Q: What sequence folds into this?
């Protein structure tokens, strides 16, 4: 090894050690504290083994939240839909594609930390000027010549101040934010699937109620015809009974339209064409029952379970690292460059030692005057970091509000459902009595119609309320941040 080569190697080693021991400018990211209560305001501390019913609604209790919260409804069809939607939904696939974009961008940024090596080769047929100052051919510009020159060049920016490391840190945080946004899309999609399914079962329950009341109305019409034939009922009774049948029957087409739209909504969530699930979901089934206990998890774990909070934290991390990148731009940049090539006028001379050319050495770039661009860039990054910090606080506060609202809604809707159940029971008794009195001639048919309308109204309200309870529980599970921690879909 000659003296020049030894100096080159020594310089490279010294600069490499200096780069490894360099500092990292800019603030280090400190994970923000999520301001959340020690426990939920409406969570029950007492445990119960009682089953939910009209008089004993399901309770929100302390305990670990099951990531597969849909299993709490004990509905095989719902679980099947959830799994298929998770793997087939187009919004989730689009979010997965955005995650892949972020990962690819991270690889691009990470390449700045490694040396760059390029190979090159050139050939030129030329003639030098007879009056010029440069003539590599030695032919005095009297003859053409060929120049052959293969080689390679390399460059490596020594990250003395950590600017590149901050860029990579910011890119890593951006990847994490993209992953959490994908989880947020998945969570929202699973909740929407469950909501549509609950509403579908609720519409089918209303169809069943209307069909049952239609049979009652038709029975009353038949009874009125008999009484009209016997001269007991009047034309008014006949018209009112017929109108009641038509009014109840008129609700069925609209309910069926709601059913079709909900089936289509579930098909769309699955990435399937309209009515793809028609045969599967046509058979009516009740709204899934509520679990006896709903574990809400600890508030301290909400920041880990809620993808939107995780994404907000990752965005804050990326913005904080961006400040370091802006600070690093104020410092000199040291780039180690090297090139080696062969040059000859005849291609056969390229394999001779005398055809070699090389150069190696550091290059220093120092910002001297930029019209305030670097200061403006740093101010911009600081403002972005402040906005990201405020965004994190807003996201945490919004999550807390959503959980509290969802708990309150779930409790209120259960109470509303229970009161309606009492009303249905009383209206059923009233209708039976009104029908007996009408047959006995103790009351007119208008009273029967009024009581039947009341019964139909409360039955439909109860069915809608039961659906609302199920939907509010789904909303609570979504607010608590469950559902994305499962093994599907692959990212």
A:
């Amino acid at each position: 090894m000659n003296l020049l080569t030894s100096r080159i190697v020594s310089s490279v080693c010294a600069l490499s050690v200096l780069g490894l021991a360099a500092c990292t400018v800019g603030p280090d990211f400190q994970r923000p504290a999520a301001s959340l209560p020690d426990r939920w305001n409406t969570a029950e501390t007492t445990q119960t083994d009682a089953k939910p019913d009209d008089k004993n609604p399901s309770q929100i209790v302390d305990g670990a939240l099951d990531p597969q919260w849909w299993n709490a409804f004990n509905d095989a069809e719902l679980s099947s839909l959830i799994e298929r939607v998770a793997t087939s939904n187009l919004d989730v696939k689009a979010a997965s594609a955005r995650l892949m974009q972020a990962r690819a961008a991270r690889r691009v940024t990470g390449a700045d930390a490694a040396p760059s090596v390029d190979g090159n080769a050139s050939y030129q047929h030329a003639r030098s000027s007879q009056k010029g100052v440069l003539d590599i051919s030695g032919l005095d510009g009297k003859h053409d010549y060929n120049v052959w020159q293969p080689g390679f060049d390399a460059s490596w920016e020594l990250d003395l101040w950590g600017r590149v490391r901050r860029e990579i840190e910011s890119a890593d945080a951006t990847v994490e934010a993209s992953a959490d946004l994908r989880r947020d899309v998945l969570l929202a999609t699973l909740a929407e699937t469950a909501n549509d399914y609950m509403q579908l079962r609720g519409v089918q329950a209303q169809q069943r109620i209307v069909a049952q009341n239609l049979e009652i109305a038709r029975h009353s019409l038949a009874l009125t015809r008999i009484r009209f034939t016997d001269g007991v009922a009047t034309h008014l009774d006949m018209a009112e009974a017929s109108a009641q049948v038509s009014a109840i029957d008129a609700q069925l087409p609209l309910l069926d339209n709601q059913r079709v739209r909900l089936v289509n909504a579930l098909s769309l969530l699955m990435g399937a064409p309209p009515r793809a699930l028609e045969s599967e979901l046509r058979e009516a089934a009740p709204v899934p029952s509520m679990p006896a206990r709903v574990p809400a998890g600890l508030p301290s774990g909400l920041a880990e379970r809620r993808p939107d909070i995780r994404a907000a934290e990752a965005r804050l991390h990326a913005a904080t690292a961006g400040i370091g990148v802006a600070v690093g731009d104020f410092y000199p940049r040291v780039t180690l460059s090297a090139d080696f090539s062969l040059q000859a006028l005849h291609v056969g001379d390229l394999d001779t030692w005398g055809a070699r050319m090389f150069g190696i050495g550091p290059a220093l770039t120092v910002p001297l005057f930029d019209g305030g661009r670097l200061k403006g860039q740093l101010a911009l990054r600081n403002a972005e970091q402040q906005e990201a910090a405020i965004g994190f606080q807003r996201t945490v506060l919004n999550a807390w509000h959503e959980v509290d609202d969802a708990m309150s809604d779930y409790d209120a809707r259960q109470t509303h459902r229970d009161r309606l159940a009492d009303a249905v029971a009383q209206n059923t008794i009233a209708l039976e009595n009104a029908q007996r009195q009408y047959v006995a001639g103790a009351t007119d048919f208008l009273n029967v119609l009024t009581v039947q309308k009341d019964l139909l109204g409360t039955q439909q309200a109860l069915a809608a309320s039961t659906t609302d309870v199920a939907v509010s529980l789904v909303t609570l599970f979504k607010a608590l941040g469950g559902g994305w921690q499962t093994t599907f879909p692959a990212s």
Summary: The first helix runs from residue 3 to 20. The CA atoms of residues 157 and 335 lie 4 Å apart.
